Amino acid sequence: MGKVNVEDNARKFIKQDDIHEAQHDKNLYNTIIKRSKVSSEIPEWEELRNLASQIKEHALTHLDHYIEQFATKAEENGITVHFAKDADEHNAIVFDILNSHGAKRIIKSKSMLQEECGMTPFLEERGIDVLETDLGERIQQLSDERPSHIVMPAIQKTTEDIAKLFADKIGTDPNDDDPHSLAEAMRNNARPKFLVADAGMTGANFAVAETGTFVVCTNEGNADLTASIPPLHIASIGIEKILPKVEDLGVFIRLLSRSALGTPATQYTSHFSGPREGSEMHIVLTDNGRSKRLSMDKFWHSLKCIRCGACMNTCPVYRRSGGLSYGATYSGPIGIILDPTFDEDTYSELPFHSSLCGSCTEICPVHINISDQIIEWRKVMMHKNKTPFGRRLAFAAADRMLGSATAFKMMEKTTYNMLNILPKSLLENSTLDPWVEDRELPDVKKETFRDWYKKTEKTMTKEELLSSVRTNLANREKVDYPAIPDYKKPGTDLKAVFEINAKIAAVDFYDVASVEEAQEIMRKKLPDAKVTCSATPEWRGNKDIHVQKPADLNDVGLGIFRAEFGVAEMGMVWVTEKSLVTNSLGYLSQHLAVLLDPEDLTENMHTAYKRVDFPHSHYGCFVMGPSATADISAVLVHGAQGARTLTLFFLKKTVL
């Protein structure tokens, strides 16, 4: 692979028309607005960011211990753990597992590590059919393109682009560009393939050393279908994803989706601690340059990244140039500091694809100093002569000029006079300077900043600064390495809070006095749901839950189960394999009805993780609502892959 020409790639995206750049920028800006709103609703938001940063730094500086603990616990839970040094080993291990099982058709949910390793083309070259089940990833797969965003892989495409693509690839109407229709078309195209897959592959957002559990966060339910239907589940996990304890998840789950999409959580936050009965589970713990990065003094903090994409959403360069311009697995600011660790030659231009505004650093939920690292990567590229000669010459001249106050003042005066004297046609000649191709030079002010500053100069003295700091710190308690609080709010009406958040997540909820009352409501809502399947003895379905294989639940119109407890802050419920009996009940069913005792409510994710029972529950999921996606032009659509609707009934256990 040659050096990425990020400038040409960006130009292609910007110049293609008047629509793509503007829509891309608008969609990502709206995500930032939503992120600002939901983060402001949590008083302890900044404290959570500090906690997350400290937990990650602690985990990374003790990574050898936590890798060993995680692998041991996972193996005790019945998971086979493999270790991969690099991408080649990762792909070889995956192929060997699949080949040994005779697996020819696999379904996979979004995994940046698998993308990083080039796994899909590797497997396809060896006769294995790979289906991306995430809608955005599937769009990019059909386009033969990389994901352009960590969380929203196809965000650079318009609805018209996707309508044409689907018409060409899966035979839909090219004139129907409604996001709901397009999502439904892909649901109908993909779901039959779930049922016949030989193996399922996922990544992981987090892995917990304490219990050998890994967590996958999705909105579509595709990861759970991928993991719960085929007899073989393979998870690719980067070693930096490991956290010390289960209680750490409360911090990161509260931060992740709020930072990524401006939502309280993903619709499904799924936890895997072992294989379901009659199946196999494998984990491929992968290094691929991560341990080397640990030794890089300037860049090891990039390993704290939780892949939320917030830095991409806020970056003015990424928002206007598109993710594909970076020519790499990781784009945007985080890509700039990650990609050169894989290949300095190929990605030598990326560190210069930044305005250095610092917005990425300000927004990062785990306090990665992204903009500082971009500057450091620029130094590396200059020092190793990996940048064009002209740029190195210009930077050398700038170094001498900026290093001398006299030289700087002379250059300032000279430039000021040139801008006033030289004809505008010469100054805006794009042949001489491509920068002005799409820009106009501003009018030159009669007074320079230096002249203005001399008239108004007043600087804060050291004593004034220290006095201000001491005043503002007078009542501030000094903080040691913190324990994670519960963040309980005294007197909170948990049911009222739950209902507010459940409504946001598109959950219908009812207070009922009996199962019969709930049944009558569902009969009116879903008169065509002929097949029902229930994991609750008090509300029987007409299809036996104890089926021979998960795919037998494909015709279920209404799935019914009782949640073990609910989380008020998120409007979500916790279910395990015990709640569902068959894990796929919650995802293959077209619609869901959930029973929840209002006494079984907990306040937030911190208190929730004190109630989960790992590793005795091999599977557990926080369900926040029906399946959803916003992968088509950021338009929210329900029923992407999993359940189309979720109806919750508050029903006390004592009335059963």
Automatic annotation (TrEMBL):
Pfam families linked: Fer4_8, LUD_dom, LutB_C
Single annotated GO MF: metal ion binding
GO biological process, one term: lactate metabolic process
Keyword Cytoplasm carried by entry: no
4Fe-4S ferredoxin-type domain ranges (all copies): 292-317
Name under which the protein is recorded: Lactate utilization protein B
Keyword list, A-Z: 4Fe-4S, Electron transport, Iron, Iron-sulfur, Metal-binding, Repeat, Transport
InterPro entries on file: 4Fe4S_Fe-S-bd, 4Fe4S_Fe_S_CS, FTHF_cligase-like_sf, Helical_ferredxn, LUD_dom, LutB/LldF, LutB_C, NagB/RpiA_transferase-like
